[in-house]
Amino acid sequence: MGVEVSVSGLTKSFGSQNIWRDVSLTLPTGEVSALLGPSGTGKSVFLKTLIGLLHPEQGSVIVDGTDITQCSAKELYEIRKLFGVLFQDGALFGSMSLFDNIAFPLREHTKKKEDEVRDIVMEKIDLVGLTGAEDKLPGEISGGMRKRAGLARALVLDPQIILCDEPDSGLDPVRTAYISQLLIDINAQIDATVLVVTHNINIARTIPDNIGMLFRKELVMFGPREVLLTSEQPVVKQFLSGDRFGPIGMSEEKDSAVAAQEEAMAAAGISGGGTKDDFTEIIPQVQPNPGMPERKAIARHRQRVLELLPTLPPDAQEAVRRGMAEEDEIRAENRARDHSGLVPDDAPTAPLRVVGGRTQSV
Ligand SMILES: Nc1ncnc2c1ncn2[C@@H]1O[C@H](COP(=O)(O)OP(=O)(O)OP(=O)(O)O)[C@@H](O)[C@H]1O
Ligand SMILES: [Mg+2]
């Protein structure tokens, strides 16, 4: 069972450079959340602050009842065992083989015997598709392979909280789909609380239960996917559609002259290059693979969204209801299929899923 992470009034600066201020959010127990934001807005700094690697000037980070910004080094060491972290650059030890890198948390934090360590490491290596590469050094493999090795290491302790900094960067689309599916499957199996930092719009729209958006030193929004995916908030809308036109610019700040120019271009029918997807519909979330348990977080999340529903605009309420009905249908189909005996126990993990008759890549 995952644990809740509750962040309140968090502010972080390096010297005179403020990175973000007054960030408050709760990663709900066992739910998958995604943190979005333009490059350089401090998403990686936020992740590192959650595990106490960086120290905020203000605010609190409560993990399992302990404020990790105030606790002792010994307490922090214990709390860290709850986390599995995939750093943006993989953060592998360059002089250790992949096997030893992945075994590291087990040897450091547990008293497991070497043959037990080997079993766990080889299972995780298999899970991320690196079988055969375990004796290689990080410098001898591709960037995407290093990323997957980092993920394997993040998973060896069966963490209750999983933080992934851009798990998809440097990966091809098929492996990105596998990794996304893997995160959902792991969440279904161990009900871990997950936070994923990503720039991948497909992932943002189909994987998390909750989405947050950092922009101009602030958390613009954080909440259920149903709320953000139907939001008219300009920053959120622009980011999720990947459009050039909007408040986000090449160097973050856009002045009013540029904004006026864009409006004129848009009025003249010139495209900002964003997706033309219909944002009045919520794309169904990716479901666990056949044979996996259902995600326990779904019911809790649904309850929260239903409570929030009356506060949303009428169109959004309608979209959320349609989305819920479609997801219920997909789950019912999955249940029927799982119980039909048509799915073998060793069914391969599928990068594609069928959504209401349409096949959709993740
Ligand atoms: N240890 C540090 N010391 C000083 N400044 C830092 C440190 N770590 C990060 N920064 C600064 O904090 C800002 C945010 O960096 P961060 O890596 O969190 O951005 P990000 O949102 O993860 O970007 P990207 O999407 O490109 O990964 C940057 O201006 C960076 O230079
Ligand atoms: Mg980063």
TrEMBL record:
Pfam family, one: ABC_tran
Keywords: ATP-binding, Nucleotide-binding, Transport
Region (Disordered): 316-362
Tagged with keyword Transport: yes
InterPro entries: AAA+_ATPase, ABC_transporter-like_ATP-bd, ABC_transporter-like_CS, P-loop_NTPase
CDD domains according to UniProt: ABC_Org_Solvent_Resistant
The keyword Transport belongs to this UniProt entry's keyword annotation: yes
Domain ABC transporter residues, every copy: 5-241
Compositionally biased intervals (Basic and acidic residues): 318-340
Example GO molecular function: ATP binding
Protein name as catalogued: Putative ribonucleotide transport ATP-binding protein mkl
Gene source species: Gordonia insulae
Designated gene of the protein: mkl_1
